[in-house]
Design goal:
mainly alpha; membrane; transmembrane helix
Length: about 210
Amino acid sequence: MTLREWRPFRIIAENAKVYLVANLAAYGVFLAGFGLGLAFPQLSAVQYTRLEDDGTADLVQSLIAHPWLFALTILGVNTLKMGVLTIVAPSMIVPFAGIALFAYWALTTGMTLVPGSDIGWVALIPHSLTLIVEFQAYLLLLLGVYLLGKNWVRPRTVGAETRGQGYLRGLRDLGWLVLPALALFVVGAVYEAFSLRYLVHPLAEWLL
């Protein structure tokens, strides 16, 4: 079996238009949030205050010096908080719910990541790759919950006789898409942790 024949890639190929639209929408919503944060700095300030109040900012600062532990923490947040609790679990109860929740997260994340200093803009250079990798992982899950919802609501489109059969078929496709998503989550977490630890300051010294 070649890589192209692996089931997750066949699912993506069979739903290429949906996957393309999802990519455009996800990055578009994030960029819209980023643009709003640039145009209205108070929106970014509100998001940053929220991160300070819930302890996220302090946690990040305490972990940057320990990249492997930082990577493990990032992986936990991305897979459990975002992947399971925000995207997958809600969609298993209400069709497509995770898509709406992700859209809200992407918008507010765009606002949050607007840099407030010169070194923040420098940090955004390596962090841009993190965003691309992690968003691709989320997009695989989003495609999965879209197929779950579609098969659940309109089971006959996939040859299922009942909504229950459609739900199970959608759940199976989602399960397959989780596999490459997990791989991307691991890559993204390791890169994010080590890039923040070892790339930002050398870049800042060179560019500022």
